[in-house]
Amino acid sequence: MPRIELSGVHVSQDRTPILRNIDLALYPGEFVGIVGPNGAGKSTLARAILGLLTPASGRILIDGRDSRQLSRADVARKIAYLAQGQSLHWPLSVERLVALGRLPHLAPFSKLSERDRAAIEAALTAANIAHLRSRDATTLSGGEQARALLACALAVEAGAMIVDEPLAALDPAHQLDVMNLLKQRADGGMLVAAILHDLGMAARYCDRLLLLHEGELVAEGPPHAVLTPERFRTVYGIRARLEELSGTPVVVPTGRA
């Protein structure tokens, strides 16, 4: 299971700083929530870890190796990725879409092995879409497409997973299903990092939160230590508090700061 470490990472786009001096470590067996307002740099952080963006300075280590020394396929086998806002345009069956998650393991023009097929089946079952396997993925609802794409990431069977807004387009029941699934994977030893806007879900399920604001990591730690009234005010610009309802953490916003 991979460990991911960032030291002094700066990322700029078109000469505009997006991330500044990011130092953090992500460990196997933990469910990390990456939170912060729009434009804080959350997705940029994920893309930098995956090698999709090149930091202007600093180092990113994956299992102790500089990520720049790893091929794209090496990273893809170690870290599965579910990007935000993906759209499906090609008329693939759901099963074939999920099978794309096995590409990092396949040589060119090779066929799926029994292990590949078992991984695909397990992913379909975990995402609760096995009954949709023969459907054209472009005909699915937004929530069903989101679960199919999650299954594609699960099919990689990587030791780590980064998911960007995995709850978008899901109804409340399926939001709970997805968060329970991610938590179970972390409890089983996987490193799971999720970019989340639902702070209540983040507080309820995540072991640790990373709070980004204007490209900087301004707080990290257990949810109750990160989600304070002062940070709600200074980072999110709202009045809010973290409470418990029957033992379940809930975020209660009361208005603009």
TrEMBL record:
SUPFAM superfamilies: P-loop containing nucleoside triphosphate hydrolases. Residues 4-239 form the ABC transporter domain. GO terms for molecular function: ATP binding; ATP hydrolysis activity. It holds the Pfam family ABC_tran. It comes from Pacificimonas flava. InterPro entries: AAA+_ATPase, ABC_transporter-like_ATP-bd, ABC_transporter-like_CS, P-loop_NTPase. It comes from the Bacteria. This is ABC transporter. Keywords: ATP-binding, Nucleotide-binding, Translocase, Transport. Part of the ABC transporter complex HmuTUV involved in hemin import. Responsible for energy coupling to the transport system. Transmembrane segments: none annotated. Belongs to the ABC transporter superfamily. The keyword Membrane does not apply.
